[in-house]
Amino acid sequence: MNYLFFATSISLIVSFASCNSNKSDAANNKSEPSAQSASSSSSQGGAVFSYNLDGTKISGGGVDALMMNNVAALSKSDGNPDKLTFFLNDVNKENTETFSHSLRFQIPGTTGTVALTPGEDHWHVELFLTTAEEGKYVVYGNEAFNITVTNVTSTHVSGTFSGNVKLAKSTGAGINKFTVTNGKFDIPVKSDAY
Question: Cβ-count burial of 100 within 10 angstroms (0-12 exposed, 13-18 middle, 19+ buried)?
Answer without folding.
Answer: middle
